[in-house]
Amino acid sequence: MTTPAFTRAWHLVSRPAGEPKPSDFALREVRIPALSDGQVLVRNLWLSVDPYMRRRMDDVPSYVPPFRLGEPMDGAAVGVVVESAAEGISVGDHIQHMLGWREHAVVPADQAGPVDPDAAPLSAYLGALGTTGLTAYAGLVRVADVKPGDVVFVSGAAGAVGSQVGQMAALLGASRVIGSAGTADKVALLREEYGFDAAFDYHDGPVADQLGEAAPDGVDVYFDNVGGEHLEAALGAMRLHGRVVLCGMISQYNSTETPTAPRNLILAINKRLKLEGILARDHADLRQQFLKQASEWMRDGRLRYRETVAHGIESAPRALMDLLRGGNTGKMVVRLSDE
User: Fold this and answer.
1) What pLDDT, on a 0 to 100 scale, did the predictor assign at position 1?
2) Contact call for residues 228 and 252 (beta carbons, < 8 A)
3) 338 falls in which pLDDT band (50, 70, 90)?
4) Quick one: 331 and 233 in the same domain?
5) 31 exposed, middle or buried (CB, 10 Å; 0-12, 13-18, 19+)?
6) Burial level of 117, CB count in 10 A (0-12/13-18/19+)?
7) 154 in helix, strand or coil?
8) Percent with pLDDT over 90 in the chain
9) Can you give the CATH number for the domain in which 33 is found?
10) DSSP designation for 121
């Protein structure tokens, strides 16, 4: 196989005010550098599209640096090795890495993780068996310390993380699992396929009212993917010594105004609540435990996942814009190859 001299990569060319626009991105041809010792050239097969990428489009301090204007963007990806200068990695191996948003990537071996296409679909390593699944698992097991009998509420429950949280909570012994979503179809999915005990469309009325009907005796654990009104409603519903896992606040990512909620944060004192943010990378020590447990649940059909698949490198920005508008069910991924 001839090694290509050039590849295509998406670049951020302007920082959006509010929702991103197609003109904020540019697909450009870039030269592929010669490999140095310890590097591999990967042809990307699947790209991950995630809400946090919107925050990286702003030049603000965060847990991950912002995208730099005029330079290739990045993110999680799975691909096949087409050239190797790294001991222990061969041509034809499949790996996961963080140089997505491009068709080819030169990846240092110490930043590549092996994946097994015979054990699970390659795209699953970006979602249910990747950072998405680990976030859900660590959030429940370590941050929330879910106990048998807990009542669990998760917002954005039809999304990549939320759908895993709800199912895992039940598998870990929660007595009642409640989810919110943005369409009637997604609410039906939560109840009928993922086994949520209750679910509601947050467009149908105030979140606090709908949550109160679904959990009249209160909530022990809230897994927050949305922020804003959802977080305020959850604080009001929390039981004494409840736990809140702060995973994402997608309701604010495109906002150009200062958020007003939650206005009832004092309840965290009154109820002696625990509120803790989660980043999967802080819980890497749980990865093998998570993979063993999640793989077992998936094999016997107790843990299900869905994907929204965009096709071709050209579709990546539109996939991100659709994700931020709630246009996905489950994990949003871009497929670059039929392999």
Assistant:
1) 57
2) yes
3) confident
4) no
5) exposed
6) middle
7) strand
8) 92
9) 3.90.180.10
10) -
Kindly state the DSSP code that residue 325 receives in the 8-state scheme. Answer: T
- Global pTM value: 0.90
Residue 268, pLDDT > 90, answer yes
Domain membership of residue 58 (yes or no) is: yes
Number of domains in the chain: 2
Q: Which two tokens stand for residue 113?
A: 């993780």
Residue type, 67: F
pLDDT of amino acid 259: 73
CA angle 75, 76, 82 (to 5 degrees): 110
Cα 208 off chain centre by: 25
Residue 256: per-residue pLDDT: 66
| Length in residues, the chain | 339
CA 276/CA 177 separation, integer angstroms: 20
Q: Is 254 in a helix, a strand, or coil? A: coil
Question: What is the spatial distance between Cα 220 and Cα 222, in angstroms, rounded to a whole number?
Answer: 7
H helices, E strands: number in the chain? 9, 15
Q: How many CB atoms lie within 10 A of CB 55?
A: 18
Which band of pLDDT confidence, cut at 50, 70 and 90, is reported for residue 27? very high
Per-residue tokens: 134: 């680990």
- Tell me if 202 is assigned to some domain: yes
**Host H or E run for residue 84:** strand 77-84
| 195-254 pLDDT, tens digit each | 999 999 999 999 999 999 999 999 999 999 999 999 999 999 999 999 999 999 887 777
Are residues 233 and 218 located together in one domain of the fold?
Answer: yes
Report the sign of the C-alpha dihedral through residues 233, 235, 236, 238, in that order. Answer: positive
Domain CATH code at residue 203 = 3.40.50.720
In 3D, which of 305, 327, 323 has the Cα closest to residue 161? 305
Is there a single domain that holds both residue 84 and residue 181? no
Residue span of the structural domain in which 51 resides? 6-126+305-335
